[in-house]
Automatic annotation (TrEMBL):
The lineage of its organism: Bacteria, Bacillati, Bacillota, Bacilli, Bacillales. The keyword Nucleotidyltransferase does not apply. This is Diaminopimelate decarboxylase. Belongs to the Orn/Lys/Arg decarboxylase class-II family. LysA subfamily. Transmembrane segments: none annotated. NCBIfam families: lysA. It comes from Alkalibacillus salilacus.
Amino acid sequence: MSQSAFNITDQKLTELAEKYGTPLFVYDVDHIRRNARSFVETFKQYDINYQVAYASKAFSSIAMLQVAKQEQMSLDVVSEGELHTAIQANYPMEKVHVHGNNKSRTVLEMAVDYQVGCIVIDNFYEIALLEEILEEKQQTINALIRITPGIEAHTHEYILTGQEDSKFGFDLISGQAEQALTHLMEHHSIHLQGVHSHIGSQIFETTGFEMTTEKVFRALSEWYERYQFEAEVVNLGGGFGIQYTKDDEPLPLSEYVHALVKSVKKAAEEYQLTIPEIWIEPGRSIVGEAAVTIYEIGAIKDIPNVRKYVSVNGGMTDNIRPALYGAEYEATILNKRDQALEETVAIAGQSCETGDMLIWDLTLPKVESGDLLAVYSTGAYGYAMASHYNRFPKAAVVFVENGKDQLVIQRESVQDLTRFDLTYE
Ligand SMILES: Cc1ncc(COP(=O)(O)O)c(C=O)c1O
Ligand SMILES: N[C@@H](CCCC[NH3+])C(=O)O
C-alpha cells in the first residue's frame, strides 16, 4: 500500500501531531514533486508538445499551487474560488484552464479579464454567456470544447464522466458536439484550440483512454473533412488511479503517458491528421498518495460478538469518500507500529450520521483511547471536500520537505465557524 511510498517516519508524524494537533493532514512534498515529474519527464521523451495541468479540485491551497507552479505544471480550476486561489498563488494565468458545467458570469469575466490560457466550454448556455461577455469587453479568449465520447470507464458510477448520459460536456452521439463546433467556428471572439475529454476518475487501465482517443480522432477526422477544422490541442483529462489499499494495483504514472501519446500518434496517422498538443489534467495521482491524515482515538465501544467501534476526532467532515463512494482506506496506529496485530475494529467518524465510518474492518494492535491513527492516501479529495457538518472546524495541513515541516493551512477554530453568523433582531 501507499505506506511504503510515503516517506515520513511514524516518529516524525507523531511529533507533527503533537506540534500541530489533530486531525492533521501531512503532505510529503517530495512525493508530490515525484508524481508531477513522472508525467512531465515521460512526455519529454517524445517529440510532441504537451501540458500537464494539475487538477486543483483534488487539493487546492496557495502552497500547493506554488509547488505545482515550481513543477512547471499548468492548472485546472473549476470555480471562482479555485481561480482566486491561483491568482493568490501568482500562477501564470496563461497556464490556467477554466472548467465547470455551470460557470458563473463572475468566473467567466474573471477568466476573460485575466486572459487565462483557455476556457473548457461545457454547454450552449455557457457559449452564449461567454460571447456576451467578450462582446461587452471587446476581448477574445482561447477555448476547448468538452466532449463526452460515450465511454464508460471502469470506476464508481458517481465519478464516471465520459458516458453519453452525463451532465458534463457536449456529447458526440447526439451531434451536440458538432453543433457547438460549427457555432464556434463562425464566432471569432472565441478561438477554438481543440477538444477536451475526461472519462472519469480512479481508472486503473489504459484501455478507456485509448478508446477515447480513437473516438475523439474519429470525430476530428469528420470535422476536418466537413469543416477543415484542425485541433491544435487534444486534452484527454485526468483520472489515473492510485493505491488506497493493497487491493489497488495502479500502473506507474509513466504508463498512462506512454499509452496516451502512442494512441494519439496512431490515431493521427490513421486519420491523416497533424499530431496536436497533448494535454492531461491529473489531480488524484499527483497528491492522493502524498498525504496521511492523523487522528486521535477517543471513544471505544465494544459490542460483544458484533463489532468494536473506535471513534476518531474527525471523519466525514475531513474525508467524505467512504460515506459517498464506499471508498476504502488503510491505517495504522503510529505509536504501536512495532506491536502485534490483535483485534479487528471499525473506525468511526464523530459526526451524527450512522454512515460516518472511515474504515469498517481494520486489524490493529490493541487499541486504546489517546492512540494516534494515521490513515493513508488521503491527499486527494479529502481536505478539498471537507465540510463544517455538525460545526466541526476544518483540520490543519502541514507540508514536509527535506525534513522540515511547515503549516500551510491553519486549523480552524470554533470562532471561525460563527464568523459569518449574524444575530436575528
Ligand atoms: C474534467 C476533469 N479533469 C480532471 C479531473 C481530475 O481527475 P483525477 O483527480 O482523477 O485525476 C477531474 C475529476 O474527475 C475532472 O472532472
Ligand atoms: N471527488 C471524487 C472524484 C471526482 C473528481 C472530479 N471530477 C473522489 O474523491 O474520488
